[in-house]
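Quick board copy: two proteins, each given as sequence then tokens.
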Amino acid sequence: MGFVVKEVQPTPNPNAVKFILDRQIAERPISFLKAAPAAEHPIASRLFGISGVSSVLMLGDFVTINKSPDTRWVDITPKVKQILAKVTE
């Protein structure tokens, strides 16, 4: 069963957004600053497949995505929601 994004929250960093989920995604912080270390993680690897994603943090009931400055949130946000909705546990 996938995750429902309940809210998308801006952060003080204009290149980072917090996606609040309907339930817990990670008990402990899981952070990937580059795509290569995320290659074996089923969710993070797919999120890095979105053009412009530069880092991923998962903790509790949220995922924080950082993007490159030249990428627009309008291009990333729907793709993040789609990937999270299709997660199978």
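And the next:
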Amino acid sequence: MKVTGIVPRGYCKGVIRAINIVKETIEQPGPITVLGMIVHNQFIVDALKKRGAITIEDASKTRMELLDEINEGTVIITAHGAGDCVIEKAKSKGLNVVDATCLDVIKTHTLIKEQLKRGKDVLYIGKKNHPEAEGALLINPEHIHLITSKKDLETLDKDKHYVMTNQTTMSLYDVYDLCEYAKKILDVEIMKETCSATQIRQEAIAKMDEDVDLVIIVGDPHSNNTKKLASISTDKAHKETHMIGSLEELDLSWLKGKKHVAVSSGASTPTVLTNQIIDFLKQYDENNPDSFIKTEIPYEKML
């Protein structure tokens, strides 16, 4: 069986930066609390916990609400960013604030603030309840409109002039479709903000070898960019695709009769997990039970 590791894969620069910031902050005295998952991968969260950084995460709560659970020490803003009001609230509680927001997310926030100053309403393509989208919308909830589908565009005032941007981890194909539709029905200026790491990974998936008959996408189910890779593999490349968090979740029945397997991963997936899967597939032989044995997850190599 041929195995192809699709390039690029592994951590993007924003993830590396965020993890390093937490590792550096852990050296400071006092409790360290991360306001949500630092990046969307549970293995990383667990590894940081072992080093002393506690994560508070609740999908039913906003970052503002989660702050009510932190009363001392240092709070770390995740790579997804947060609204200025979240940071102000943290400081008002006497907390030391460390900002690990991805620089691409900061760039999008700056763009949004500049357009708001110009008196424009902003259309923000994003995923509802995603922390990156939440942080962007909190900049000005009255004049920033979350766009998740064409239906959201159809409810807007046709007499206004809008600026349109997006969550950095969205599918570039979904963003393109929504932008094109918006231009047909609204007076809108497009300022797409899909980060380069996300875009390059998505393009690589869409252009994979034609003879690939199975695609494995490695990543956490919380990760939007990972889920978008899987959807592009299925919907654009028309490949049988499975998204898994680690080697433990690899179902050997998927491999039966396969000739060429491709592997990619989300931008917050530890490289060691992806490499472990690639190594397993390279030695796998469906006629040799000895090759079915999975090695243990190398937790000590997560960070």
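Board note added afterward: The mean pLDDT is 95.
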